[in-house]
Task: structure prediction
Amino acid sequence: MFRFPDPTAAPIPFPRPAPARRATPEGVLAELVAGNQRFVAGAARHGHRLAAALAAAADPRPYAAVVGCMDSRVPVEAVFDQDFGAVCAIRTAGHALDQAAVASARLAVDMLGVTLVLVLGHTRCAAIAAAMEPRRPGAGANAVLDEIDRNIGTVDFARTDAARIATRAHVVATARRLRMSVAATVAGAVYDVDTGRVEVLSTL
Result:
């Protein structure tokens, strides 16, 4: 029978991995961008191979954490053409930052040595669209939509490109909040579900 760990027990030592390739935030972002370019070009190097999974099982060395949406069209490892063990993926609806998401990003940085946390929004986001819906339930009805509301409150929804602006505003606000919580570089980007391309919004 499963039992929750005793909170009074001594913490289990967590070995810090050796420095990963391209450990600087600039190098990590460059690797992710290059991986996305391979993905768009149809020249991906990595796939779902059991051998790769087994190779990373005993010694994972992630160098990036991606805080993204749970949307089924945005599989983080595929979008950035990354192999097993390379990326810590933290996914919630609309990449909303609840306590667990922030704590997960901190663990990736503090325990696994990740140097870059990338907030990844995407086009055609249902959570963004729902938050922009004037007839949705009021404040407090849904924590995800309430957070998005706070981040896109100054956007003019009458504009034809309101969804695009709102998506970017939400990414930037999420990245700004994460910068106050993690001891790593935080950047923001948007994935276009129609083209497969990732656009970096905030520079390092």
In short: The radius of gyration is 18 Å. Strands lie at 64-69, 87-92, 116-122, 185-191, 198-200. DSSP finds seven helices and five strands in the chain.
